[in-house]
Specification:
Blueprint (H helix, E strand, L loop, with lengths): L4 E4 L8 E7 L3 H8 E2 L13 E7 L5 E9 L10 E7 L2 H13 L3 E2 L4 H8 L5 H12 L3 H9 L4 H25 L6 H28 L1 H5 L1 E6 L6 H9 L17 E7 L2 E7 L9 H15 L3 E7 L6 H9 L6 E6 L13 E3 L8 H12 L14 H19 L5 H19 L4 H11 L5
Parallel strand pairs: 1-7, 8-10, 8-11, 11-12, 12-13
Antiparallel strand pairs: 1-2, 2-6, 3-4, 4-5, 5-6, 9-10
Helix pairs in contact: 4-5, 6-7, 6-14, 6-15, 7-13, 13-14
Length: about 450
């Protein structure tokens, strides 16, 4: 890989500093043609030293900026890297990129710096995905889960499982190479004991991933109730801003409205729904149908009642509708008025208008879903692709268990498939590597 790639490494737009980065063999030669400084001799350049100088914009003007050189292989990509730290600005950075491409660099593809880091063995595939997750994290918990795996913890655990599988493959190769030796039964016993241990490890990964799925997706909460009980006022109080229209007119909310808020590092996704009632209005009827559909995807349902009135016909219909759902929290609104509503199980009395007991609702939602504190020291896999691969591995293990009495050739095929599937998580799924590991661990005296 000899071509030099370049890109802006900081967000586009105005700012104090922008960084333009090059990577690849020859990037220092390009830098020498465009950047100069009093104390800079390219023949004696010191890696990781910050040099102050001028970037020639090739139009008679120069940008006063810094340059730093990182020497391969001790760099992020494993290649030579040059970075220019320039004044922030869209036009300026685009001009610098234009100059670099004129002198031989090319624009990097999205993610190409990290791709080169992976190809040069600087990061594994799961570490690359964790970098993306860190950047895209929308809650403290999501960031913490990504950071907990950024040091290669997952890669090391997957590698340990692959090593155990490699020993099984070596056992099989021994029985195939020496069929006259009577140790196929003992080899199978050892193989399937190891497979059982691997299954338990994968089960634990998946179990932890299921309990921690709220880290990446958040807790989905549907706010339901009959018209004019204060659902929109409650949403506004929960998110701390005026997001839903509040009016005395029934049927104001005609579609679902989604808003999120962070609580104890977990994102809570609130869905304000149309008031459920019998209506002849076509648009409102569509909104009511969406309200009912939102119940199926909710982790918690907030059933809002007007505490200043007795249960209406619509309230009683909603009560029947909610009987098949778990995690229903009854919110008795309008505590600032005289209560007429009957006592309800699992209720919280609030005033959405005066924002009373709003934090209590969030705390209760958290307790209903997150049964215990999340242990970030565990290997918490929240990446959907990785979880799907682990499910595939479980499927292969099930096939292996059914094939216990089959020939060693069939068992070997399934075990190699398991090795490769696990390798999809880290990027280590080359068949040649299995062969190398077998010969290094199990020479058989040849």
């Amino acid at each position: 890989m000899n071509d030099v790639i370049c890109a802006i490494s900081t967000p586009l737009g105005k700012g104090a500093i922008s960084i333009v980065r090059m990577s690849g063999k020859g990037c220092l030669s390009i830098a020498e043609k465009v950047f100069s400084g009093k104390s800079l001799l390219y023949s004696d350049i010191v890696p990781r030293m910050l040099y102050l100088g001028y970037f020639d914009l090739q139009d008679g003007t120069k940008e006063h900026c810094f340059m730093v050189y990182f020497k391969a292989p001790k760099t992020y990509t494993g290649e030579d890297i040059v970075e220019f730290q320039v004044h922030g600005g869209t036009i300026l950075t685009q001009k610098i990129l234009s100059v670099l491409t004129r002198f031989g660099a090319r624009m990097a593809q999205p993610g190409e710096f990290s791709k080169r880091a992976f190809e040069n063995g600087k990061i594994s595939l799961d570490e690359a995905e964790n970098i993306i997750a860190e950047i895209n994290a929308e809650s403290e918990s999501e960031l913490r889960a990504s950071l907990s795996l950024s040091d290669g913890k997952l890669k090391d655990k997957i590698k340990a499982l692959q090593d155990k599988i490699t020993e099984s493959i070596a056992q099989i190769e021994a029985t195939l190479d020496y069929p006259e030796e009577d140790f196929e039964k003992s080899a199978k016993d050892k193989i399937f004991n190891d497979i059982f241990d691997i299954k338990n490890e994968i089960d634990n990964f998946i179990l932890d991933a299921q309990s921690a799925r709220f880290i990446s997706k958040g807790i989905n909460v549907a706010i339901v109730g009959s018209p004019n009980v204060g659902k929109s006022s409650l949403l506004n109080a929960l998110v701390g801003q005026e997001r839903a229209i509040v009016a005395d007119i029934e049927g104001t909310t005609r579609d679902v409205l989604n808003e999120s808020v962070s609580f104890k590092g977990i994102k809570i996704n609130f869905v304000d729904t149309a008031g459920i009632r019998n209506s002849s209005d076509k648009v409102e009827k569509i909104g009511i149908e969406k309200s009912k559909q939102s119940l199926n995807s909710a982790d918690v349902i907030l059933w809002v009642l007007d505490g200043s009135r007795n249960l209406s016909i619509e309230d009683k219909e909603i009560e029947k509708l909610l009987k098949g759902y778990k995690n229903v929290l009854v919110i008795i609104n309008k505590s600032d008025k005289v209560r007429k509503c009957e006592k309800m199980p699992n209720e919280i009395v609030i005033s959405a208008l005066k924002e009373q007991n709003i934090e209590k609702i969030k705390e209760k939602i958290y307790q209903m879903v997150i049964n215990e504190d999340i242990d970030y020291n565990k290997t918490l896999i929240i990446n959907e692709r990785q979880i799907e691969i682990l499910q595939e591995c479980k499927s292969v293990i099930k096939q292996l268990q059914l094939a216990r009495d089959d020939s060693m050739d069939i068992i070997a095929m399934l075990i190699k498939k398991l090795w490769n599937n696990l390798g999809k998580i880290t990027g280590e799924c080359e068949n040649e590597q299995i062969i190398d590991l077998i010969f290094s661990k199990f020479c058989l005296g040849k």
